[in-house]
Amino acid sequence: MTSVKYIGLDVHQATIAAAVLDGNGKLVMESVVETRGSTIVEFLRGLRGELVVTFEEGASAAWLHDLLKPHVSKLMVCDPRKNALLKSGSKSDRIDARKLAELLRGGQLSGVYHGEAGIRTLKELARSYLTLTQDATRVMNRIKAVYRSQAIPCRGRSVYAVRDRSEWLKKLVEPGMRRRAESLHQQLDLLEPLRQQARREFLAESRKYPARRRLQQIPCIGALRAALLIAFIQTPHRFRTKRLLWSYSGLGLETRSSADYGVKDGRMQRLRKQISVRGLNQNHNHDLKNLFKSTAISASTRKGPLQEYYVELLARGIKPAMARLTLARKIAAITLRLWKKGENFDPAKLKTQAA
Length: 355
Prior knowledge:
The protein is of the alpha/beta class and 355 residues long. Helices cover 49% and strands 15% of the residues. The strands form three sheets. It has a five-stranded mixed sheet. A two-stranded antiparallel ribbon has the order 6-9. The protein is globular.
């Protein structure tokens, strides 16, 4: 019978602490190796049996995942935000590696999805575009903050335009304030061409994926949002139900209940009591949540079947904020159904399409 080795890796920039447990939970080896591909692979090749490996999600997780996957029987990149047991007791690299191996053996780790390498290019281009967009937005906010600090109204986008720049700068009397605004405008001039180039490259790469056209059938999801959905979700088959996608997108409800069962007439039965709702789940993909929320906001203001659905929710007495959340959950469910089952969007089936 093949022996199983449970291996916990505590990964750092220069070194990796490794702990190896056997099937009975006995520590059979501890080691510290250099964070280098050849060294790590050589360490694993020196172990016999079925190798089950885990390490925490981090900056080098994608590289390490692709490196180790061909050399082990099972690989789990675990979520560090759910490893509360690592925070208890003494802490060191060797202790953390041993705890990871023990949690892996006990099945108490939550995995982080790492897709195939084939979609990595689209993911990196998406990150590049979103990062440049965030940087440009930050600079634009700082430009307006300069004018607002001098009680100068600056609504709209004309304050960013090159043709109107001299007129705006004349409104700043203080020389240092004017020079600061000029510097911010120069930053924006450098960022905007880079952002547009990143957008073009990202959209060009997304055309390689057939799912893009199907997702664009959903109202208010254009080429850019469809490409972002593919980059964030990667494959719809990772979510067995729509509720799993809601949780991953930060649209799932967290509930609390206690003392759910009681004894009546000598028989145990489940009590009918109201479950306490504690809001939306906090551990989620923030970019995907922002995408679904922005789509819901656009759909609620743009004429179409989704707006009609939103108006129906309001007519039933649902508050606007909750109606937008319900609409975002509906859009996420439709996205999963169309992509997973290969269906086309049908407005006539809107109420039942994602049921």
